[in-house]
Inverse folding.
């Protein structure tokens, strides 16, 4: 099995009100070095290898369902050979 | 005229929508389960509010892949009126029938209260019964109604008069240009965050939403029913 780690984040051009609140809270705790906070989603997919290149399949899943590319960016990393 | 109210797991305004059409508007209406694969017999499609699939992943993102959505797309392409309210609007955005996307409300709170809307475009099949720039009161109830799209899309929306409703006074959720409802380019698909189906009788606090449904019926009668 192959493990794929998908990160979905709001695009730069999109305001992230949750992130802003968390940043303000960190500042209130005296972590003034924090410049920005963006909140995203993390998904783990466990995929059975097939003839189809896994990058191609995951890209399609991201575009169709896992991310909404109007407001979100995605990136993923493929981890080889996970023992079951 | 015969309406379909599409029911997804987690829809919760389906009964309000059904009531608005059957009891207040006096037209035919049926519930249609999301698994259904035929909408041929219906003249108008209504996607109600709620939390389809628990809003998992993103509002409307799972519902958009229901069997019935292929039929909704077909109905839209055939020019039938398609109205999505609240979660129904979110599903229409996710399906690509309408441009843009929804973000969390700017204030991060779920907002549930009557709001004043401006009817920006009263030339659509959904708004012909309203006066130009008429102010109406309709309730909102959402946590993700902060409409967003890229600049290019926004320009197109303005140019084609696709912005149908705007929040009139304060902008409750931070949506671009105070957008509360938009149509597709052809004008037969309307998505809106406020709930016209909850404003169809004075007993409910407002009857301002009724004219939206009456507009749809009048438009349909004018083009489908020949009077001698």
């Amino acid at each position: 099995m192959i493990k794929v780690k998908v990160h979905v984040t709001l695009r730069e051009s999109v305001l992230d009100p949750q992130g802003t609140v968390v940043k303000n809270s960190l500042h209130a705790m005296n972590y003034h070095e924090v410049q920005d906070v963006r909140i995203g989603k993390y998904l783990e997919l466990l995929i059975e290898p097939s003839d189809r290149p896994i990058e191609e399949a995951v890209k399609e899943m991201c575009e169709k369902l896992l991310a909404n590319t109007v407001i979100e960016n995605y990136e993923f990393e493929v981890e080889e050979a996970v023992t079951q | 005229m015969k309406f379909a109210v599409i029911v997804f797991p987690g829809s919760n305004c389906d009964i309000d929508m059904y009531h608005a059409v059957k009891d207040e508007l006096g037209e035919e209406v049926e519930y249609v389960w999301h698994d259904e694969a035929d909408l041929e017999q219906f003249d108008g499609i209504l996607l109600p509010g709620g939390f389809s699939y628990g809003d998992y992943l993103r509002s409307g993102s799972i519902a958009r892949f229901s069997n019935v959505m292929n039929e909704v797309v077909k109905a839209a392409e055939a020019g039938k009126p398609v109205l999505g309210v609240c979660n129904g609007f979110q599903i229409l955005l996710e399906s690509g029938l309408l441009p843009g996307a929804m973000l969390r409300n700017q204030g991060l709170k779920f907002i549930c209260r009557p709001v004043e809307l401006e009817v920006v475009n009263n030339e659509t099949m959904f708004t012909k019964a309203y006066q130009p720039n008429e102010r109406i009161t309709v309730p909102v109830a959402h946590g993700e109604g902060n409409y967003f799209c890229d600049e290019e899309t926004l320009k197109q929306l303005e140019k084609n008069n696709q912005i149908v409703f705007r929040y009139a006074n304060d902008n409750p959720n931070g949506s671009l240009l105070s957008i509360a409802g938009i149509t597709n380019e052809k004008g037969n698909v309307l998505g809106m965050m406020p709930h016209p189906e909850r404003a169809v009788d004075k007993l409910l606090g407002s009857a301002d939403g009724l004219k939206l449904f009456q507009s749809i019926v009048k438009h349909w009668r004018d083009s489908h029913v020949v009077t001698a």
